[in-house]
Design a protein that fits this description.
With 127 residues, this protein is mainly β. It is 0% helix and 53% strand. It has strands spanning 4-7, 10-13, 18-24, 32-39, 46-54, 57-62, 70-75, 80-85, 94-102, 116-117, 121-126.
Length: 127
């Protein structure tokens, strides 16, 4: 079992930046692949980014809509995954969720690929 707590959301103007954090409980953080999803009002939850690792290498995955603007990273010593969001756009406005998936090597891009979820943090980008 792992518990996830997101932080770092807020209100920012278009073109600005935010860094989201997701703190995970438990000692086995390194055994999970991690992902970020978002959900805007009236829309389905969508994939944003994911990170997995194995064999001494880290793998990252991004939705096309955020590629080149967002960066996912993890600090296994701190049991934390981050989402650095730059050049934010109004269409990035959503509740952002952190998720964990059993098995560190394979990340998923669909919500049902993940086993644990945080409560979400609101990101609002004004035009």
């Amino acid at each position: 079992q792992v518990q996830l707590v997101e932080s770092g959301g807020g209100l920012v103007q278009a073109g600005g930046s935010l860094r989201l954090s997701c703190a995970a409980s438990g000692r086995t953080f390194g055994f999970y692949a991690m992902g970020w999803f978002r959900q805007a009002p009236g829309k389905e939850r969508e994939f944003v980014a994911a990170i997995s690792w194995g064999g001494g290498r880290t793998y990252t995955y991004y939705a096309d809509s955020v590629k080149g603007r967002f960066t996912i990273s993890r600090d296994n010593a701190e049991n934390t995954v981050y989402l650095q969001m730059n050049s934010l756009k109004p269409e990035d406005t959503a509740v952002y969720y952190c998720a964990a998936r059993h098995g560190a090597v394979v990340a998923g891009v669909r919500p049902y690929d993940y086993d644990y979820w945080g409560q979400g943090t609101q990101v609002t980008v004004s035009s």
